[in-house]
Amino acid sequence: MTTLAPVRAPIFRLLRSELRWIYRRPRTLTLLGLLALYPIVFGIGTQVIDDPVQATRDQSMVATVAGNAFMLPVLVLSTTMVFFLPLGTTITASDALAGEASHGTLRSLLLAPVSRVRLLAVKAFGVAVVSAGAALTTALIAFITGLIIAGPDNLVSISGSTLSVGEGFWRVLLATGWVIVQMWAIGAIALAVSATTEHPLLVMASVIGGLFVFGLLSQIPVLNWMDPFLITDSWNYIVDFLRDPIPPDNLVVGLLRAVCYIVIGYSLALARMVTKDS
């Protein structure tokens, strides 16, 4: 009697299925819609509140957005990465494992002819794509909004130099890539928490609450020895992308810190997945 061996599903089919499942959820589409609308509202708001001004060292960061197409996308990224982008990343990560467990579908996935390492990789891919897509959508719409409001001739760094459209666009892409790595770090930690519980709300409360705690700890001078361990400690340095030339030191430190969180988060998630009862 011939025994049929289980057929391993092609990885690309698994990835496509995961993305289709994620982007069919109404809350994912709602969050992306809000992130797409935010830079438009932000840009129009600065134009209405303030007269157009040129960027100089003596003016506040928000005031320089009006009339400056280069400031808007970076400032929008700096504000959304505090809450909205981490929220979207955490929601996706919480649904990836904890949500599946709460609906009873994770057990079926663990029994399917898909290794747990591949399953975690597919879930991590979905979280990474959503967070990257959200950040990229927000930045591109903000850049286009800035060009429409201020014009292509008003791309001015906070150092006072005028950039071309191509150079400004490249700077925005660099800033977006830096933010995406920070969100991947949040996603890795969220997946680690998601692998340990069946309650998606607990994942969101833990991760978002932890980010707020990190922000508070970074404001206490006596606890400044903890700063190198706080992922949020580098987020203020995103404004360095607005300088000419870009000072790399703080940005590289923030990038390396995020990579450490990614390694730790996915290591914990993998350790939990391989020992998880089916």
The radius of gyration over CA amounts to 21 Å
What is the first-to-last residue Cα distance?
29 Å
Biggest sheet overview: none
Number of domains: 1
Backbone shape = globular
* Average of per-residue pLDDT values: 85
What is the helix content? 55-70%
Pfam families: ABC2_membrane_2
Keywords: Membrane, Transmembrane, Transmembrane helix
Organism: Kibdelosporangium aridum
Protein name: ABC-2 type transport system permease protein
What does it look like?
The chain is mainly alpha-helical and 278 residues long. 66% of the residues lie in helices and 0% in strands. It has one domain (12-39, 58-276). Residues 51-59 have low confidence and may be disordered. Pfam families: ABC2_membrane_2.
How are the elements arranged and paired?
Elements: H1 11-23, H2 26-49, H3 71-80, H4 84-102, H5 105-111, H6 116-150, H7 165-194, H8 200-217, H9 249-275
Helix pairs in contact: 1-6, 2-3, 2-4, 2-6, 3-6, 3-7, 4-6, 4-7, 4-8, 6-7, 6-9, 7-8, 7-9
